[in-house]
Amino acid sequence: MEGIMIFLTNTPQLGDIQFNVILGGFGLFLLGIKFLGDGFKDAAGPKIRDYIERYTGNLLSAILVGTVITALMQSSTAATVISISLVRAGLMRLDQAIGISVGANLGTTVTALMIGLNIEDMGYYFVFIGALMLMFLQRKKYKNYGQIIFGLGITFVGLQLMSDQLIILQDLPQFEAFLLKMSDNPWLALLAGTVATAVINSSMAVIALVQKIYAGGNMTMVAASAFVFGSNVGTTLTAVLASVGGSVSTRRAGWFHALYNIIGALITMIVIQPYSEMILKIHEIVGGSPEMAVGINHFVFNLIWVVGIIPFIPACIRLLEILIPGEDRIKEREKIEPLDYGLVTTFPEGALQLAQKQTSQMADLVMESLNTTRDYLHSRDVEDYDVVMQLEEMVNEMDSNLTRYLLAIAKQNNDQGIKAETYVANVEIVKNIERIGDITTNIAEFYSRIFENRESFSEEALQDLDLMYKHLISMLERSFEVFKDENLEGLETLLKDEEYLDAIDIKYREKHFRRMSDDVCDGKITSSLFVDILSSLERMGDHGINVVKYVKSKKEAV
């Protein structure tokens, strides 16, 4: 009788599990993944985007880039979003974006393989070291490294907290019955993995949970495989939602990501029993912890489908073009060629021509950004805002590159009879074009604030803005033509147009104040920002005139 009482006392109950610890550990794990990804992104800066743009010339290289970038950022969604933004900007083809999406699936397996190494005990040391670096180091570069180490640490600490509580589940009769049902019907496990991943928006978190449950002996490999497949399907929800209302290429890339993962999961589910036995045999050969078996499962599944989909990607693109018809409104343009520093010493005039060509491309991007802010004013489409931000990043990068390049030309050739005024004028032209780009970004942010506060412009205010946009765009187009052709015939007309732009700025301010007094424009944010928007448009006209004036000074210096 005493033995029976001891047995009953030692049998764990549901109340013995500290669910608050599980939830807290899970929260730490998710936070660690975010810290880790953000740390890598901050440490690399704009180089991640540059690497994606530069090294995705063909499908295989795009897949490799997607794998590496996702492994670093700990987010397949982030890699996919960057590639889609480059498609929107016309710097990447759809097949390249699809390659990155496919490679991103493989990149997500790195975390599961790391968990399989059973180094959770090191997590506390990582947290300590990372915290010290974040608290006491001053340089941003080292703080970013500290964030990476800290993120890795709390990821493992969160896993250990969950593991200590989840191990109790193995002795609960209710949980055993649940897992038996899952094992008997893997389709339920597939559904559970899909829903769990979609809800928490992290396939890595679900895989980590499955690893811990499997390691405790509470799940068969068949059920674990189904959860792995489901996590791949669930992670596609973000890509599909992000593509809703987006451009044609955005929707095609988003739905490819979904269809690719769904079809892969469904086909592998048909052979899940032999597939799971194969994983167990691989694990026997490789060795390692039970968690490693699930990590191998995740890796092998994604590797099979990465290799398997490659021959069918062209056919998939044709199918997507049929299912999602239409032309993209973002034009495809040639990639911006890197500036050749070899010309600086061997052919300085050629180097100047190359700089002028890239400055012209920069001006085209600024014009596209300005036109997109006008579209955003009427459409309220977040994608228009995203396009403006993407173009701004590109313009800023070109500004930095051109400034360094022109300085190198000036230093190398200051004794070769080429006047310094020419270099000064070229740099000032670049800076004025870049400033126009900055102002278009400011305007997009003004509109965003207005829309977020659910306010709108009156019809008369919209008409005034449209007329000012029309006059400004005409001015800037002609100013940039003067720069490209170095033809000053239209200078006097442009100066008069700039005076007219100043006049309508004042006129529209007065009209706005009258509308406010008549309660026609009564939105708090809109009323405040309307004058700022007018001022921003007028300042862009000033910078356009500055470009023309520096073209004139260049010609006079020759």
TrEMBL record:
Listed GO MF terms: sodium:phosphate symporter activity
Localization in the cell: Cell membrane
Q: Which GO terms describe its biological process?
A: sodium-dependent phosphate transport
- Name the GO cellular-component terms: plasma membrane
Domain PhoU, by residue range, is 360-445, 467-551
Q: Does the keyword Transmembrane apply?
A: yes
Q: Which Pfam families match?
A: Na_Pi_cotrans, PhoU
- Write out the transmembrane intervals: 17-37, 58-84, 149-168, 188-210, 222-242, 254-272, 293-313
The membrane topology noted for this protein in its Swiss-Prot or TrEMBL record is:
Multi-pass membrane protein
User: What UniProt keywords apply to this chain's record, in alphabetical order?
Assistant: Cell membrane, Membrane, Transmembrane, Transmembrane helix
The protein in question is named Na/Pi cotransporter family protein
Q: Name the source organism.
A: Erysipelothrix inopinata
